[in-house]
Amino acid sequence: MDAHLPWPATTPPRLKLASQFPLADKGFGTRYLGPTHALHLHGYAGRMQLGAAEFELQPGDLTLSPAGVASAYDLPEPGRHWCVHFHPAEGAAPTVALPLHLRLGPAAAYVAERLSAISRLQARAPDVLAQASAAVSFQELLLWCAARAQDEGDPADAVADRVSAIVDARFAEPLTAARLAREVGRSQHYVARAFRRRFGMTVPSYSLRRRMAHAHYLLESTELPVGVVAQRVGIDDPHYFNKLVRRFLGDSPTVLRRRAAAKSW
């Protein structure tokens, strides 16, 4: 089996589902075979069979199971993964090569955030605009994966990954461009250029997205006051925090928390 899946570079996919699911399979006992492609971001270690191939999985690995190809898992411990099922492409168009297995390392946090946003959009069906936005966002993510697989081994990408790992671990701190450049031993210009090429955004934008993703988690899973949530993600001004939450998450902190509470019943 080829290690890549050809995919149209200019055609957004038709999504079937996008969500996070638990998995506890052992010994490759359950085989999955469906009519859609399936992208997974794995939050666990283990092994995966895909057709005749077998992969060792680490937390943060991304895999793509083509339609009509059987997959199975052997996990030492249960875990969770993000999953997007999407229909095979129709018609001819210029294609890119999507990797069937991609080790993301620190970049997994970025992909998890993107998948979470896509899942929220897809859940708003039958809202046509939301579903179209989910499809376009997922197409952008597929192209990002193709570019990342193509660029593996580039030293600039290694620097970008080190910077993303620092931000992931310390996003609530005031991490200036100069400080990050010193920590990775490169110039600010080099870091900025490498990071934008690797992640498609600036370091400050990435940091802000990570802050909002963690704020979303805290708002939905804890009863911490909104002001405390803001401080936990490094934002001291509550009015600015409310503005950012509306911009990135679509509603006020109060509405997000109320909606999460309603879903838990």
Walk me through this protein's architecture:
With 265 residues, the protein is an alpha+beta fold. It folds into three domains: 4-151, Jelly Rolls (Sandwich); 153-198; 201-265, Homeodomain-like (Arc Repressor Mutant, subunit A, Orthogonal Bundle), CATH 1.10.10.60. It is 47% helix and 22% strand. The protein has helices at 108-122, 128-151, 155-170, 177-184, 188-199, 203-221, 226-232, 238-249, 253-263, and strands at 4-8, 15-23, 31-32, 37-42, 46-50, 53-57, 61-65, 71-74, 79-86, 95-99, 101-103. The strands form three sheets. It has a five-stranded antiparallel β-sheet, covered by helices on one side. Strands 3-8-5-6 form a four-stranded antiparallel β-sheet, with no helix packed on it. The protein is globular and about 55 Å long. The termini are far apart.
Task: Give a topology summary.
Elements lengths: L3 E5 L6 E9 L7 E2 L4 E6 L3 E5 L2 E5 L3 E5 L5 E4 L4 E8 L8 E5 L1 E3 L4 H15 L5 H24 L3 H16 L6 H8 L3 H12 L3 H19 L4 H7 L5 H12 L3 H11 L2
Antiparallel strand pairs: 1-10, 2-9, 3-8, 4-7, 4-9, 5-6, 5-8, 7-11
Helix pairs in contact: 1-2, 3-4, 3-5, 3-6, 4-5, 6-8, 6-9
InterPro entries: AraC_XylS_family_regulators, Homeodomain-like_sf, HTH-like, HTH_AraC, HTH_AraC-typ_CS
Keywords: Activator, DNA-binding, Transcription, Transcription regulation
Protein name: HTH araC/xylS-type domain-containing protein
